[in-house]
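Handoff note, outgoing to incoming analyst
You'll be picking up this chain. Sequence as last confirmed:
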Amino acid sequence: MQSTPLPVSLELDPKIFTDPNLINHKDCALAQLEQQFKIKGGHLHIVKTFSEKSENRFTFQLGDALYPVCSGGTCRSQALYEFLQRKLDHDNFVLFPPHAARCGYDPYNGEVRYYTAAPIVDEFESFFGKKRTTRFGYDHASDWHDSQGAVTAEKIALIKTFYDTSYYGPQSHFQGRTGKRRVYMAFAHPTHAVLKRLLETNDTLEKVVLVAIPLADEITTPSPEAGIRGGSPEAYQAFLDKMEKIFSNP
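Most recent structure output, in case you need it:
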């Protein structure tokens, strides 16, 4: 006789965190995935507001593997990656490169997800003093394109296996290093995608944390009230100020 799972408290706001690409997928409702994540032992930390109240702050632990995630891996996760590079002692953490959870290679909804995009024109390089970091997995991309340069459905299994093993699964690693605890930090819609992928690739999630950050891409498109230009140093600094309020060193 199959036992009924114990009820768990559901906290993710579907208006903020639901991925439009998963709405019509079977067994992928946000609330359902959140429940399964918690039943498997995963810890969900939801940032409610960008204040320094203790309930909003997340404290890293020595030995953590850290995974900055956004939709395309080009703005929010890049800026968070640079923030963590500055904030943490690299010897005590495993910092993964930015990940494009929705608009990159990973076929998280069973479809070819690779996008070609125009070069990003903003002031990232002048603000951080460096080019953007290569997104996770993109150094393997030559294996995922056919002779005409396209990514086809025939490559889905190969790409999915790579991200299953190297990024979402229990043996995920970067440059040969793994963490004692895996901490995925996802913004808005990508939170839904990360939940789905973690559940697909892990029997237990007891040493996995998902930090859900209710923040759209305000770097590219700041709110009108902010009075700052998209992609400007001011836009990046405003983002870093918010990250400083929610993340703490050990």
